[in-house]
């Protein structure tokens, strides 16, 4: 659950800290007081799209921080934290996001810097936000397949993964197959180009590691005189007359005399003797190298020309000799396909036919699983709609095949939700017959069903009860309260029926301080809550009668909540 939310310099909010309780928290207040701004802040905290317009006027940055607590150590979000190398802290997860006036974002999870995509992925495991505009999801038939698959869950996942793997291979083969239909002139030009490129690479007779060896040899030749002079000077210093080796030989003899008289010098004598012969061998080796050293200007020219050839090929075909050879291998395969395209055409045609059949079989398997899930989903939705006073409604999932019998990444199913809201009326696409209030109830039915499968810790409803009243409003209130038994629910509402079911009632209002408008939050209880309920009932003046009605509504809500627990 979301335990605490801290907001700084966000829209008209200056500084605001809100603590949330378990169960159902309802946020009420006049229109424009800032209720939705709080939900916008949570949405941003969960990885939603940010904008500089969110930053309070005059501030450099907006800051949002939310503390979540989870009792279930097996919750999927902990696997995500481990995957991203984020430390777990006794079931607490701290999300933080800063948005500065330059448009830059700084995101942290439990103090660790993360990208927005990681914040969004973790946030999606914790928070599910649903507002009025999200009924558009139901109005988009492309989303109906996604919703059905979401309901099917694990029963569909394995088959869908297998299908996706086959679909990728199918699309790759189809792209290769389509290349056979290219213009003959283009193919001939491509063959000529590939032939030239391959011949150019082959003529170079490239060897891996050759370039590095040539660069090293060139360096030696370019510095031949300097190296020769240094080696000569070293040899002269060691073995020249009255130079290093002579003096060390003298020292060696003197130490040998001393060691013969005093054993204290034996170790030093032996060390110097070993050094003498080692230096003598080194001097001889240097002399041999000097005798063999010979500058060959033609060899330097050969190296320069060879490196120029390699550099030219690197500019055309790859950044290294290895890349050039890989390019040669790839282009050889393409040339072979083009030269022998008639034969390959027949082979690939058979492969594509077999792959299409494999894809069809796997797509049919998805259809079977979806139809099974559709029946279950239809029954579950009808139960929910009945409780939301749409008992006369009928619902089913309509299955069709994609146009031209084609496949896409989800199979070959075209899914549409069909509904009839009145007895005797035929089933029609949901997108064409449902009113705003019916869509709200439909959405709530789906959320009630999906909340049992998703493991979301906090579900947020932003004025989803707009456009309903009377017994429907009461049914929606009870449905939202029922969802809050298993998940924390935050709900912005103008309906007194919903507010009455709250376990926590927060009142949002605007205040003016020093010529600046800001948003304040007050937790209501006792008489304050009764007065707010009375205001929501009357819409204007609070009277003894509206207060009496408010008390009665709260009492009835308390009785209904006891039955739910």
Automatic annotation (TrEMBL):
MF annotations from Gene Ontology = ATP binding
Q: Which SUPFAM superfamilies match?
A: P-loop containing nucleoside triphosphate hydrolases
Q: Which branch of life, at top level?
A: Bacteria
Pfam entry (one): SMC_N
Q: Which GO terms describe its cellular component?
A: bacterial nucleoid
Q: Does the keyword DNA repair apply?
A: yes
**GO terms under biological process:** DNA recombination; DNA repair; SOS response
Annotated family: Belongs to the RecN family.
Which protein, by its recorded name, is this?
A: DNA repair protein RecN
Q: Which organism is it from?
A: Planococcus halocryophilus
Q: What is the lineage of its organism?
A: Bacteria, Bacillati, Bacillota, Bacilli, Bacillales
């Amino acid at each position: 659950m979301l335990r605490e939310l801290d907001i700084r310099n966000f829209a008209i909010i200056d500084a605001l800290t809100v603590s949330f309780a378990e169960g159902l928290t309802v946020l009420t207040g006049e229109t424009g007081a800032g209720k939705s701004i709080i939900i916008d802040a949570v949405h941003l905290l969960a990885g939603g799209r940010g904008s500089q317009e969110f930053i309070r006027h005059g501030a450099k940055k907006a800051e949002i921080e939310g503390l979540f607590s989870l009792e279930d150590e097996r919750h999927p979000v902990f696997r995500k934290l481990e995957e991203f190398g984020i430390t777990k802290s006794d079931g607490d997860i701290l999300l933080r996001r800063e948005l500065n006036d330059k448009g830059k974002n700084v995101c942290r999870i439990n103090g660790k810097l993360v990208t927005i995509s990681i914040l969004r992925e973790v946030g999606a495991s914790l928070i599910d936000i649903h507002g009025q505009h999200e009924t558009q999801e139901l109005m988009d038939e492309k989303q109906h397949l996604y919703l059905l698959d979401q309901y099917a869950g694990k029963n569909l996942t394995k088959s869908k993964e297998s299908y996706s793997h086959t679909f990728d291979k199918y699309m790759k083969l189809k792209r290769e197959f389509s290349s056979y239909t290219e213009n003959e002139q283009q193919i001939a030009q491509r063959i000529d180009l590939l032939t030239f490129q391959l011949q150019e690479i082959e003529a170079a007779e490239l060897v891996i590691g050759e370039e590095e060896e040539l660069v090293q040899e060139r360096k030696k030749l370019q510095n031949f005189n300097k190296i020769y002079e240094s080696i000569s000077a070293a040899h002269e210093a060691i073995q020249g007359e009255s130079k290093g080796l002579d003096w060390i030989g003298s020292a060696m003899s003197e130490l040998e005399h001393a060691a013969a008289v005093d054993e204290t010098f034996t170790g030093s004598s032996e060390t110097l003797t070993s050094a003498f012969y080692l230096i003598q061998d080194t001097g001889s080796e240097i002399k041999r190298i000097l005798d063999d050293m010979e500058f060959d200007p033609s060899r330097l020219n050969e190296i320069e020309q060879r490196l120029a050839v390699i550099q030219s090929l690197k500019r055309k075909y790859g950044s290294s000799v290895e890349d050039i050879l890989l390019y040669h291998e790839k282009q050889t395969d393409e040339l072979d396909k083009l030269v022998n395209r008639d034969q390959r055409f027949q082979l690939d045609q058979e492969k594509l036919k077999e792959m299409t059949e494999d894809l069809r079989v796997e797509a049919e398997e998805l259809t079977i699983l979806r139809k099974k899930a559709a029946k279950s989903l239809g029954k579950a939705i009808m139960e929910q709609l009945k409780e939301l006073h749409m008992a006369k409604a009928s619902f089913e999932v309509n299955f069709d095949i994609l146009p031209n019998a084609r496949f896409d990444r989800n199979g070959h199913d075209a899914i549409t939700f069909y509904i009839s809201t009145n007895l005797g009326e035929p089933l029609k696409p949901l997108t064409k017959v449902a009113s705003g209030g019916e869509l709200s109830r439909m959405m709530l039915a789906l959320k009630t069903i999906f909340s049992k499968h998703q493991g979301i810790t906090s579900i947020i409803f932003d004025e989803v009860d707009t456009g309903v009243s009377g017994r429907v409003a009461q049914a929606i209130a009870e449905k939202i309260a029922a969802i809050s038994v298993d998940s924390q629910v935050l709900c912005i509402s103008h309906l007194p029926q919903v507010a009455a079911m709250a376990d926590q009632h927060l009142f949002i209002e605007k205040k003016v301080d020093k010529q600046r408008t800001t948003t304040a939050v007050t937790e209501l209880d006792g008489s304050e809550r009764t007065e707010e309920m009375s205001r929501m009932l009357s819409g204007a003046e609070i009277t003894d009668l509206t207060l009496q009605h408010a008390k009665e509504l709260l009492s009835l809500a308390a009785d209904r909540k006891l039955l739910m627990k």
